[in-house]
Amino acid sequence: MRQWAVLTVLVLCWMSAGMALATETATRPGATLSPGGSVQGFTSSHGERDGGGSDGLMPVEGATRAPLIEAQSAPASQVMPTGESVPKNDTGDTAWVLISTALVMLMTPGLAFFYGGMVGRRNVLGILMQCFVLLCVISVQWVLYGYSLSFAPGKGFWGGLEWVGLKGVGFTPYKDYAATIPHQLFMMFQGMFAIITPALIIGAFAERMKFSAFMAFMILWTTFVYDPVAHWVWGVGGWLKDLGALDFAGGTVVHINAGIAALMAAIFIGKRNGGGKTILPHNLPFTILGTALLWFGWFGFNAGSSLGANELAINAFVVTNTAAAAAGLSWALLDWVFNEKPTMLGVATGAVAGLVAITPGAGFVSALSAIVIGMFASIFCYLAVTVVKPGFGYDDALDVFGVHCVGGIWGALATGLFASKGVNPAGADGLFFGNPKQFLVQLLAVGGTMIYSFVVSLVIYKIVDVILKVRVSEKDETVGLDLTQHHENAYTILE
Amino acid sequence: MKLIIAIIKPDRLEAVKQELYKTDVNLMTVNEVLGHGRQMGVTEVYRGVKEMGNLLRKIRLEIAVNEDFVEPTIKAILNGAQTGQIGDGKIFVMDLVECVRIRTEERGTTAIG
Known about the structure:
The complex is a heterodimer.
Chain A: H1 2-26, H2 60-73, H3 91-116, H4 124-151, H5 183-201, H6 211-234, H7 239-243, H8 251-269, H9 284-303, H10 311-339, H11 344-358, H12 367-392, H13 400-418, H14 436-468, H15 474-479, H16 481-486
Chain B: E1 2-8, H1 13-22, E2 29-35, E3 42-46, E4 49-54, E5 56-65, H2 67-81, E6 89-95, H3 109-112
Antiparallel strand pairs in B: 1-5, 1-6, 2-5, 3-4
């Protein structure tokens, strides 16, 4: 096992070194980082080329690539006409998306605590480790080839390899994605989404997956499931994007996608061995802390998805907060009615369900619609968790399917119901605003994602299972993942 | 009167409890303890520093019973806790001198059940 780990690290180093060389030779030698940290080659000399339209905040390497990027949107024109400037970075937009990127990053550790509090205390480090290591692995994957697979302009299925190693991804805005922020910033913002999506799945197979198998599954899953689906919905040429499916911040790409893969994993890895007893959450305050971090980070996730500091961001911010609140409240009421008392874990779960449900519609619905979306999100997720799960008997340990997939489906369909051009003229009207076709498109996006994600996840799971055996031994499960997978203990009983 | 102390694996607790209920033993005290017998302890590593032979989590049950219940209780614990693996634990039985129910001040065999 250890040899494999060392080999993987070496291969990764080798790949990145190769790509670094390849990109280096493709750019002009002037654009290097000075020891002081400022980028040399930020000159205004290229301003002559683009007709003086730039304020000089563009590196020289960007200038050499600009014609390439331009050629995609206007293949006929080799030379840029004077007067029409290249897309320019807006400082306000850049600042907001920078902050949003950091906010979305915080969601992954937040999720770690959200999940970590709900498992037994012999497995809490296992959960934190899985979330944290995804932050490390997918960050590297994204820069090496993930971003290119997802976002390079390509065919309907996935992006090309032309942006591998961030080749050609510079500081000039890429108009088709975000016209006012540096392309690299857009790349990093999207990278955070690519990290948290596989992390969501962790809750399904919590407390019983072998770490080596986990690593293999996640790298393959991100490459063959996340990257293509992200391309379908957001990438230039993606078939769902071309169809007009609305997914503002990733309800389909992130939540349905992860949720259905989670269901697959829960079914095929089998039930936890709790000795016939339900495993109780070992630290609910952790879970609440995690919920708070998720809620906070979600402002970046949703309001940041406007990719600018504009009215759309405000709308997303308002509906995100409103839906989370409405859903938390509604879950508390459900608990009160059906389980005698409102519970803290219930409010936290409800809030997350509301956040999930508002994600696809955050840029298309109004605050009042958000209340309805949030209220119903809790009702549907509550049913999934308390009726559907026990009914079918799969052990989705931390209810990833019940909250993220069900909440995501409701959110995607609700977007088809409540979307309004009054909120976002660039969007579309939903069923309730006289456009039933949008609802069908949403349905198709949901169905397509679910089938693809389930099937491909299953194939990846089976391959990993044959090679590495996904589940830990019964003895290791009893002792706990912290000690058996990581040789660490989260808490001491005796000091 | 006897005091039965059993050290078992944590994941067997639920099964042992169910077996005890079946034999009408409903009163018990449960502790989480650390220990190891023949079973090896575990290794822990903190920033490269190894801690060898650390103790494993175990559950310690204490049950006070009248003579008639001694054998059924032992049987119930065996049924619930036995997996056949090293580390299943031990049962200790000892004489109990006195038992007082605090609420009623009853003593002896009536106070136990």
